[in-house]
Design a protein that fits this description.
Layout (H helix, E strand, L loop, with lengths): L2 H28 L5 H34 L8 H27 L5 H34 L2 H19 L3 H16 L4
Helix pairs in contact: 1-2, 1-4, 1-6, 2-3, 2-5, 2-6, 3-4
Length: 187
């Protein structure tokens, strides 16, 4: 698969997961004694593994340097903005983990905080994805030579194997499908 198309496909999976995540976060407050808290933790792991380690890893480790090599600016340019936003996303994930830990420790207000953070994360990441799809990925598709795209495809495959492990990508998609049935969302 073309590496830019692969990143866009991952974006669609992330968008679906975000809607599912907000649904799940709403259930946490409604049914705190159920398996929902465990499912919420698994969703946080999904975002850390799939979105950050895998997807952002491909961008930060390979795509952004390739774009810089053809003259796309990091400082004051789209790459710098995306890197800053990746860090902001990580900070939001840390807030979600803190809220979920507080919930597990018995803090009754933590479920509402978790939901609010989940909604903020969804909106933040949707805007981030739109910028990448509409700006950065267009630049990459138009300006990167075919040989570089082929190299990126190999690099992306290697990163998935090394960072998240063989078959883990598919396992995460199966988890999302199961959670969609439990928490009802359309992808």
């Amino acid at each position: 698969m073309n590496p830019i198309d692969e990143l866009k496909t991952e974006h669609r999976a992330i968008e679906g997961a975000l809607d599912l995540f907000v649904n799940l976060a709403g259930r946490l407050a409604e049914a705190p004694q159920t398996h929902t808290a465990s499912d919420a933790r698994q969703m946080l792991d999904f975002f850390q593994t799939f979105t950050d380690a895998c997807h952002h890893g491909k961008e930060e480790g390979f795509l952004f340097p390739a774009l810089e090599a053809i003259g796309v600016s990091r400082q004051g340019g789209p790459i710098g903005v995306m890197l800053h936003e990746h860090d902001q996303g990580r900070a939001l994930m840390a807030e979600l983990r803190r809220a979920l830990d507080a919930h597990a420790a018995g803090d009754r207000s933590a479920a509402a905080a978790f939901r609010a953070h989940a909604e903020a994360y969804r909106e933040f990441l949707r805007q981030h994805i739109q910028k990448e799809d509409q700006v950065l990925f267009r630049i990459a598709a138009e300006r990167l030579p075919q040989a570089k795209l082929a190299e990126l495809a190999r690099d992306f495959e290697r990163l998935e194997e090394e960072r998240i492990g063989h078959g883990r990508h598919e396992e995460l998609h199966r988890m999302l499908e199961a959670f969609e049935k439990a928490y009802g969302t359309a992808r």
